[in-house]
Amino acid sequence: MGFLSFTAWQFALAGALCAAGPVVIHLLNRRRYRVVEWAAMDFLREAMQRNRRILHLRDVLLLLLRTAAVLLFGLALAQPFFAAREEEYSDRQPLHAVIVVDNSLSMGYEALDGNLLAKAKDRARQLIDKLPGGSKISILPACGGRDVALDPYETKENALEALDKIEVVDRSASLLRAVNEAKRAREAVPELAGRIVFIGDQQQLNWGDLRSNEIAQDLPPMQVVDVAPAEWENTWISDLRLQDGLADVETPATVVVEIEHRGPSARRDLQVTLSMGETVLGEKTVTVEPGLGARQVDFEVVFNTLAELPEPDRPLFVPLRASLAPDRLAADDERHLAVPVVASLPVVFVDQFGAEGEDPIRGRIGETRPLRKLLAPRTSRRDAPRQLIQVRHITPDQLSQEILADARLVVIAGVHDPGENADVLRQYVEQGGQLLIAAGGNFDPVAWNEAAWDDGAGILPLPLGAEPIGEVPEVAGANVRAIQLSFESLAGEDVFQLAGIAEAELRDLYAEPFFFKAVAIEADQPTLDRLRAAEEERLADELSIGDQPLPDEPAARRRHLQTLALQRSPQVLARFENADRSPYLVSRQIGRGQVYFAASGLASSWSTLANTNAVVAFDRILRGMIGATLPRRNFAALERLTLPLPSEDPQLTVLLARPGESIADEPLDVGYLGTSAGSAAAAGAVQRGVTVTNLLARGVYRIVGRQAAVSTDPLAAADKPLWEVPLVVAGSAGESDLTPLARDEFDRLAAAANLRWIGLADEISLAGVAIRGQTSWWWLALAVLVLLLVEMIVLAWPALRRRETLLAP
Predict the structure, then answer these.
(1) 328, exposed or middle or buried, with CB in 10 Å at 0-12, 13-18, 19+?
(2) pLDDT for 749-796, tens place per residue?
(3) d(CA 383, CA 343)
(4) What is the DSSP letter of 551?
(5) CB 707, CB 650: distance < 8 Å
(6) In the chain, which stretches have pLDDT less than 70?
(7) What distance in Å separates the CA atoms of residue 648 and residue 675, rounded to the nearest whole number?
(8) Cα(259)–Cα(285) distance, rounded to whole angstroms?
(9) Regarding beta strands 110-111 and 95-101, do their DSSP bridges make them parallel or antiparallel, or are they unpaired?
C-alpha cells in the first residue's frame, strides 16, 4: 500500500509551511541576555536551576504539539487517500466510472437489433448495473450534445437518465479528445478509483490522432468496447457543391454531387435526387463501385423561378438538398447546401483604357475585357439588371477609396505601374477585399516591384524579376517562341477541375493557350523563407496589440506564429511548361483578403488565352473570390455560432427552426456583437446579433426575424417574416467510412499504453486500482483536537499543581 495523492495538495503544503511557524517563534525567543552581577540574585539562582530543565522540556513539548497540530490540520484539509493494486473486483469498493459513449454519425448505422448507439447504451447500462454501491458515474458523449455535464452522477438512476438523452450528432469522434474529457471528469472525484470505458464502433477515423506511440503513452488505463457490426456496407454523399461558387438568375449553374461507397459489392441503379424545398430539380441513376473514390454526378440548375429574386448587391441563399435511396446509415444519404444567388455585385476592372478609352473597332481593347465578358456577358444590354456583376470599368487615375468602398472584387491588368494606388489597394485587401493582378499591355515589372512589393508589405504576392520571359510576336518576329501551362501543376488545384470532364479532356483544354511573354516571379525558397520570417514579425506585432493574445510559453508562441505565417504564405497554383518551371499563377492572403497574380496577359498579344476555352478557369477563380466576400451560410456541426442580424430593427423577435421543423418557434436572444463596419461605425452604431447553440444535426436551420407581436403564440405571426436566414450544417464525409481499426494496429498502440480491447462477447472489467483511506481526514482532524487538548493540559499543569499544593493540609 502506498501514498497516492491529495485532493488539494495545496492545503498540505500550506499546513507544512504554517507548521514551521512555532519553530521559528521558538528560535526567535531564544535570545541571549546581558549578564549583570547582582548579589541578591544569588539567593534565586539555586531555585532557578532546579526549574530550568522542567521549563525547557515543557517548551519542547509545546513546540511539538503545536507543530503537529498545524501540520495535521493541513493534511486533514487535503483529504489524503491511498491506493493499492487489486486484481479482483470487490463489490464493497465504490468506484468512479467514466463512460464515454461514441455518438458520432456512424453510430446511427442500423443492424438487425437496432443501431450502434443503442448497442453502446446497452453495454453502458450493463456496466452501471454492476457498479458497487456508493459509486459515482460520469456519462460523456464523445461528440458533445445537449446538457452535457462533467460533474459525476451520484445515483445510477440519474446516470441512466443522462445516458438515454445521448443522441447521434453529425460529427466525428476523436479518441484523444474523449480521453482529455475523461481526464477532466476524473479530476473531480480523485478519492475514488477510476474506470474509464470508451464504447463505440472504433472506426479508423476515431484513432487518427493516436498514431504516435508518444501520445499513446500518455493515455490513462482504459477499456475500449467495440460494438461495430461484423459485416457492413455504406453509400453516402461525400460532397455537394456549386462548381463555380455562386450563381445568378440568368445563367445555368452546375451543382456537383459526389458519392462514395464501401462494401463487398457495387451499389447498382442508385437514384440520386437534387431538390430545392419540395421541388425536385433533377434525378439521375448511377452505379457506384466500392473503393474507387468519389463518383461525381452533376446537375444543371437555373434559379430564375425563385419566389423571391435577389436584389442588386444583396445575395439570396437558396438551400439545396441532394439525396440517395436510403441504406442502413440513412443520416449520410442526404446533404444540404446553401447556394448564394446574387445579382449586380459591384466589381471594379482597372486597365490601360477604361470604359471611356476602350474602342474595339480601333483595336483599343482593355486587358480586362475577357474577364468582363466572362462575368457579365450582357454588359451591352440594359435589360439584364440581375446578371452576376455590375461592371465598373476605369483607368488607374480613376481608382479611389470611394469606388472601392462596396466593391466585391478588383481586377487590375495591363497597367504600367500602380503608383499611389498600391497603398489604397493594400488597405482594401487587408479589410477583406479580393484583388486579381494580371500582366499584359504596358505592364512594367520593375515599376510594380518598386511600388507594390515593399519587402512583402505591398500587394504583390511575390517579387517580380526585371527580365521578362519571352517576347510578344510583333517584337520577336520569326524568333517567336511559345510556352504552355504544365498540366501536372494544375492537377492538384480545385479551380482547374471541371465536373464531368475526364483528365484527358482537361489536359487537352489547358494545352490550348500559348504564352509568348510573361513576367518572371521569384518563388525560390530563400525568398519564401524571408517572406515567412517577415510575416511572423508582423503577426507578432499585430497580435500583441490586438484582441487575440499570443501564448505565453515561448515554444507555443513560436508554433502559433509559424502556423499563421504559413497560412499567409504565397501559393503557386500553376506553372509554365518551360525549363525553369516558372510560376504562372500565385496567390497570397493579406490581412482578411486575398491577392492573385497572373504572370501573362489576358487580352493582348502576350498570350492566346482569351481565344481558348481554358479562360473558363479564370471564371471559376473570380467567382470563388467574389464568393469569399459573401456571408458564410454553410458550416460543419458545431456547438455555438454567433451571427449578425441583417437588420437593426430593435422591435424584432428572432426565432429559430431546426432541421425538420416547419415553424420557427425557438426564441433567440438578441445581443450586441461590437461596432459595425462602414458608415454606421463612424456614427457610433453597434452590430446586433444572435447566438445559436447545438448545431449538431445535419440539415437546414432557419433564423427568422419577425415584428414583435402582442400574442405569444408563434403561429399568430407565422405569415410574413421580415427576413429569413438559412444555415446549412453538414459534417465530415470521412465519418461515413465505417472501416474499423485493425486489431494489429490496436495491439501496437496497446503495447505503448494501458488499453484493453472488449469485444462483443467480453465483459467490461471492474478490476484495477483501488482507493483506500478516503476517511483518513476524519482521524487527522480528531488527532488535531487531541493535540490541542494535550497542549491545554500542559499549559494548565503548573497552575493545577500550585492549586493542589495550596490546598494540601
Answers:
(1) middle
(2) 887 778 899 998 899 988 876 555 555 656 667 777 887 777 777 767
(3) 13
(4) P
(5) no
(6) 1-56, 62, 65, 72, 74-92, 211-216, 378-385, 543-553, 556, 674-686, 709-719, 769-780, 795, 797-809
(7) 13
(8) 12
(9) unpaired
* DSSP state letters, 615-668: GHHHHHHHHHHHHTTSPP-EE--EEEEEEE-S---TTEEEEEE-TT-SS--EE-
Check the CA dihedral 379-385-388-390 and report its sign: positive
Query: pLDDT at position 677, please?
Result: 45
Residues contacting 379, CB < 8 A, separation 6+ = 372, 373, 391
pLDDT of residue 678: 42
Rounded CA-CA distance 629/430 in Å is 13
Structure confidence at residue 239 (pLDDT): 95
Sole residue written with cell 479508423: 204
Give the span between the Cα atoms of 440 and 598, in whole angstroms.
9
If you write DSSP's letter for every residue of 110-146 in order, what string do you get?
EETTEEHHHHHHHHHHHHHHTSPTT-EEEEEETT--T
pTM above 0.85, yes or no: no
Torsions phi, psi of 532, nearest 5?
Answer: -65, -40
Which residues does 758 contact at the CB level (< 8 Å), separation at least 6?
197, 223, 224, 225, 226, 764
Residue 200 in grid coordinates: 463505440
The amino acid at 336: H
Q: What is the reported pLDDT for 733?
A: 92
Q: Computed from CA positions of residues 481, 487, 492, 496, in that sequence, does the dihedral angle turn out positive or negative?
A: positive
Tell me which H or E stretch contains 213.
helix 213-217
**Could you tell me if 687 and 676 are in contact, meaning their C-beta atoms sit under 8 angstroms apart?**
yes
Distances in Å between the Cα of 23 and the Cα atoms of 17, 66, 76, 802 are 11, 9, 21, 29
Query: For residues 461 and 454, is the Cβ–Cβ distance under 8 A?
Result: no
The C-alpha cell at 599 is: 504572370
How is residue 661 written as a grid cell? 421543423
Asked whether the beta carbons of 136 and 766 are under 8 A apart, the reply is: no
List C-alpha distances in Å: 755 to 201, 359, 747.
16, 76, 9
Rounded CA-CA distance 688/704 in Å is 15
Q: In sequence order, which residues have a C-beta less than 8 Å from that of residue 342 and are 6 or more positions away?
A: 246, 247, 248, 310, 315, 316, 388, 626, 630
3-state SS of the chain: helix, strand, coil percent to 5?
A: 35, 25, 40
